[in-house]
Amino acid sequence: MTARFPPTPPGCSVPEGSRWTAPAARTSSITSLAGSGRSAEQHPRFLVATTGGEAVDIVGFGPQGVVVSRGRRDGTFEPSELVLNDYGNAQGWGSKKHLRLLADITGDGRLDIVGFGGPGVYVARNLHRQFETR
User: Fold this and answer.
1) Phi, psi at 104, each rounded to 5°
2) What's the pLDDT tens digit per position in 17-59?
3) Three-state secondary-structure class, residue 73
4) N or C: which end of the chain has fewer CB within 10 A?
5) Which residues contact 52 (CB under 8 A, 6 or more apart)?
6) Which helix (H) or strand (E) holds 31?
7) Cβ atoms within 10 A of the Cβ of 101, count?
8) CB 113, CB 87: distance < 8 Å
9) Strand partners, 11
10) Backbone angles phi, psi at 54, to 5 degrees
11) Which InterPro entries does the entry mention (predicted)?
12) What single-letter DSSP state applies at residue 111?
């Protein structure tokens, strides 16, 4: 079974005191940049704190590369942006052949991108709001 993202952004609830709010759309830009309507299998998306802060961000591997929508403390998200023109389908990365993960490999509290593709392992270091490949 392949998960599909709807054309409108998925809703999420946020805590308010001792209860949760009703689900509501928190961002719409991540679906367009990371592949609206495309399968999560083809264009994986993760909810992670990329900068080591309290807010959770949305990281997507879209057709053109890595897209991030930074989380805000109120449960909403900043508009998404293409932060790295790599690890996308346009650069030859595909979920059926290449595993792409997020892990803090430098010990600085920020999640880096680790890709297993072709002949080796590739890394893009997290420089706070951008990623850098070597």
Assistant:
1) -85, 95
2) 666 666 655 555 555 544 445 556 667 888 888 877 778 899 9
3) coil
4) N
5) 104, 108, 109, 110
6) helix 29-33
7) 13
8) yes
9) 25
10) -80, -30
11) Integrin_alpha_N
12) P
